[in-house]
Amino acid sequence: MKKIFSILMLLSLVVVSACRKSDNATMPDGMVYLNQPHITKISGSPAILDDDPMSFEAKIGIDLYFKDSDKKPDYLDFVVMKNGDAKNVKTLKGNITSYPDEFDVSGQLLTDLFGTIVAGDSYDFGVNYITGGATYLAFPEVGDGYGANVGSQPDASPTARYSAICSYIADDFIGDGKFRVVTDGWADFGVGSIADVVKVDESTIAITYPIDGFNPITIDINLGDNTASVARQPLGTYGGSWQYGTLYVASTGGGNANYVDPCSGRIRINGSYTVSAGGFGAFVLELEKAQ
């Protein structure tokens, strides 16, 4: 029987960045302080569709994370890396000295730089940071650009990625509706069992729950990038010794944790399971086409 747990955490975060050594006399000699780059998706295509990569167009923003700091680079070079290969990086725009800035990218531009785009390709955008005659790479061959864990700060975005995805077409993706369970964190389906998936509409599917009387898990799919979301919805109640009433599920963790992948025929949901009294945590449910 699943039981509710609660966790009380005290988080203490001390961030020292983009400052002068004189501001903190305890900072060691030789430490280099950078104003963390901030790369964002402003508008345009959320992803590259493998069956029409030339239709991809997007605008990317180039800025600094600490906007009010007097610590700024001498200049930035805007670069792009293909498929995580730090030896395959191209410069898109050099000597950027005013912020914020913007840059338009397209499927044609990426094809001109790297060749044909196929499903599974990924393109990471970032900046090389130049200051005091030294260059700090966005995509070094060893380690993380600008230092470890810089992306963990609130709303930080030191790089931006666009990936080439298989287009989602509901009927083709669902097929006969038979999907094998490959991950079942909540343990109601059972790994290796077959789950029925049905089409609700062109961007909505539903996974039939394996317990009589329970509602299906309804999943909304973003046709632009194949990310998925589950709005908080009631599943049912287990009865018997279950004391917590109706069980609810909702997706959590964003698009990196919730998606459909037409290339591999997979559905992945990171579900937060709750009842009126509290929550149980997040558990992954992942299915793949059975045939």
Describe the 3D structure.
This protein has helices spanning 107-114, 170-174, and strands at 37-44, 48-49, 57-64, 75-82, 89-96, 101-106, 122-131, 134-136, 160-165, 178-184, 194-201, 204-207, 217-221, 228-229, 233-236, 247-251, 259-261, 266-275, 278-289. With 291 residues, the protein is mainly beta. It folds into two domains: 21-165, Immunoglobulins (Immunoglobulin-like), CATH 2.60.40; 170-289. Strands 10, 11, 12, 13, 14, 15, 16, 17, 18 and 19 form a ten-stranded antiparallel beta sheet that branches. Strands 2, 4, 5, 7, 8 and 9 form a six-stranded mixed beta sheet that branches. The radius of gyration is 23 Å and the shape is elongated. The model is unreliable at 1-27 (pLDDT under 50).
Keywords:
signal, SusE outer membrane protein domain-containing protein, 2 helices, Immunoglobulin-like, disordered N terminus, 291 residues, ten-stranded antiparallel beta sheet
